[in-house]
User: Fold this.
Amino acid sequence: MGYHQATYDERLLSEIGSGNTYSVEKTNRPEIPDGIRRKKLSLPDVAEYDVIRHYVHLSQMNYSVDTGFYPLGSCTMKYNPKFADRMAGDQRFSRMHPLTAPEYAQGELQVMYELQEFLRASSGMDAVTLQPLAGAQGEYTSMLIVRKYMESIGESRRNEIIIPDSAHGTNPASAAMAGFSTVEIPSKQDGKVDLDALRDAISDRTAAFMITNPSTLGVFESNILEIEKIVHGAGALLYYDGANFNAILGVTAPGLMGFDMVHFNLHKTFATPHGGGGPGAGPVAVKEKLREFLPLPVVVKEGKKYSLYYGYRNSIGRVGGFNGSFINLLRAWAYMKFKGDDGLTENTRKAVLNANYIGRKLEGILDIPTKGLKKHEVVASTRNTGKKALDVAKYIINSGVHAPTIYFPLIVPEALMIEPTEDASIEDMDNFVRLVEEAIKIPDEELHRMPVNLSIGRADEVRAARAMKLHW
Assistant:
């Protein structure tokens, strides 16, 4: 081995010569056409420790859930525990080929089956698919199921989806992609659905009503059972956007409220990675009458053996490759197993407690448009301060803390959408409130220059959106 290595090193040195410019003319690789073959390769002469210092410094310039408080409402970045990352990186899982025969993948199939069963039970549904690759794709999958269900019962004329104005922006997009028209109805002053507007909008053309409960305002829809009667009484389906499932897990369930289907955002409730384009996972659960429309395959258990089932005759077909984003599903499974039922319910209680704590601290500083108990998040407005939400957010960023979501939901002017999650400490939340207080006291001309402590200054968001630089 030593002889061969030495011979290779000597040959390599003789071919590349010395200095910073390496000649590759002698490599003589006929499979590479002359027109695209590189003649010379210039590489910097840099010590390993300089390279390491450079990339470690770059990593420290990036904000993440590992480095600080991340109160991003709605899209919610929650701390990802490292035990789940280690499990996801275990080669016994990560190197398993997705086309491995079921008899040789019993461990993976067991993970998926147990995750399916937990999601089914915790949501009050009857069947689950793990295939969708993101929350928004879970919405889209659900809308495809709605469409095919309506076709199967001879109700193809039902081509409208009703959506409240407090909904996530992906709701109308998912409905439109599935071929539906959308009908928006207003919320009342307290943030809840206007029931009269719902009654006026619903008709024999309505296929489904999409709603998040609690809503993006952090308000629980106390009239949900009345909504269920209105929707089902008109022959439509009731869809639960599970983005805010972390606010009710272990306390109540969509099935108890009368919903027909639900998608889950695993990143928000079960601490899987989110952002940066993936990987994502957005499983969908349905009531029994919609089971046969689920994407295939699903994992089933017979005795002690797990297998993939392809038998639903009315399936909408695949919506993702293989069996979904398995490594993300594995992380969610690990988090569920670690926390257990009691731990996940405690998560819910802490998330609600933290949202109400930060909401109370902000009262008297910002305008809180909806009163009473909040659930997982609180929406505040800077309109009473004379400051722009954008400027307050820039000050928070300049102070080394990630800003909350701004200008959403759209029905609240100058909105700050704040979700501390169950992982936030009192110190984190008190510091965040302090930064908001400081921001509204700073003169406008100084605030408009923020941030000044970061690697770049004030960005032109409009120009950045219209003239994107998609290369370095």
